[in-house]
Amino acid sequence: MSPETLRALLVDRELGELAPDIAELVDAYLEAVPAARAEADAMARTVNTARETVRRFPDLAPASEPVAEPQVIPIVYWLAPWLARAAALIAVAALAGWLGYRTGHTTGPSGPMQAGGATATRVVDSRFKGLWTQYQVAYDSRRGAFIVATQQ
Amino acid sequence: MSGGMFETAQPAADVEQLYRESREALTAYFLRRHRSTHAAEDLLHETFLQLMRRVDRCRAASSPRGYLFGIARHVSADAWRHAKPPGEDETSLASVAAPQPDPRLAVARETIAGLPPLQREVLDLRFQHDLSYAEIAEALGVPVGTVRSRLHNALELLRERLEQE
């Protein structure tokens, strides 16, 4: 038997809260183990001291408003911080995407571009529409140049 | 007090018997918290008025006495919320304690005073009002295991402090 378990049983025994059959077992254990008997005597002294102290000093009673019992927090509230972080990430990603779109939308043609040693030519292609098709890049091997198609 | 009483008796008889059996204990409960005989009497009456409104719930409770103390606890809290300072009269308990010859009591008093309110409340209900674990659990609205662990933790700390002295 662990010391913590024994001490808990001794308190319950001292307060008369053990079921009769368990109290019998504990009593038998105390008879067989002198060290446990000493623990029981020490716990009895502690309980008696506590009882006498509480009865003698009424100011020890909690006189103010009862402290609210700790509430079991529903799992939704446990997840709230993580949901908040996820929402923040989505908001940042959406903002970055919108800023990228706005940047591309407001930036004017820059003429031929240099990319990887080959010339890039910007062309207008009305086939591409939508936020994610602002630019289309292709490599023309015949000309050895990148072709950048923009939405207009 | 058994639940059988509430299964067969008329509501008025139930309340009357519970009143007779619990009156002294509840008066002591309110006296310790409000330090005034008049306040204790008023709160005692209020407690039983509330009990009469909830006789069915009291019958359904695992411990009617514990349920009654639970009502008393809330009545006491309501009284404090209405910001009446503790009344002092010639019968108050403000200075009951005589100089204690036992140094263990001084250490115990200091230790218990430093405990969290929830533990002190359990100690008070157990050692002053002799409520069982089940009755305390009913009064506080917590599981019996919680009552047990609070009491054990409080007594464990008290024992450590006493052994240091």
Describe the model:
The complex is a heterodimer of chains A (152) and B (165). Chain A has 152 residues and is α+β, with helices and mostly antiparallel strands. Chain A has four helices and four strands, in the order ααααββββ. In chain A, strands 1-2-4-3 form a four-stranded mixed β-sheet, with no helix packed on it. About 5% of the residues of chain A have low confidence. Chain B is mainly alpha-helical and 165 residues long. Chain B folds into two domains: 84 residues, Rna Polymerase Sigma Factor, Chain: A (Orthogonal Bundle), CATH 1.10.1740; 66 residues, Winged helix-like DNA-binding domain superfamily/Winged helix DNA-binding domain (Arc Repressor Mutant, subunit A, Orthogonal Bundle), CATH 1.10.10.10. The interface between A and B is large, with 31 and 47 residues.
Task: Looking at this protein, list some descriptive labels.
heterodimer, A: 152 residues, alpha+beta, 3 domains, four-stranded mixed β-sheet, 14% strand, B: 165 residues, mainly alpha, Rna Polymerase Sigma Factor, Chain: A, Arc Repressor Mutant, subunit A, 9 helices, 74% helix, globular
Number of strands of chain A: 4
Q: N- to C-terminal separation of chain B?
A: 41 Å
CA gyration radius of chain B, whole angstroms: 17 Å
CATH structural architecture of the largest domain in chain B: Orthogonal Bundle
Q: How many helix segments of chain A?
A: 4
Q: Going across the major beta sheet of chain A, what is the strand order?
A: 1-2-4-3
Averaging pLDDT over every residue of chain A, what do you get?
76
Query: Could you name the ranges of chain B where pLDDT drops below 50 across 5 or more consecutive residues?
Result: 1-9, 88-97
Largest Cβ-defined interface: A-B, 31 and 47 residues
Estimate the global geometry of chain A from the Cα principal axes. rod-shaped
Number of helices of chain B: 9
Strand content of chain A: 5-15%
- The top level CATH class name of the largest domain in chain B: Mainly Alpha
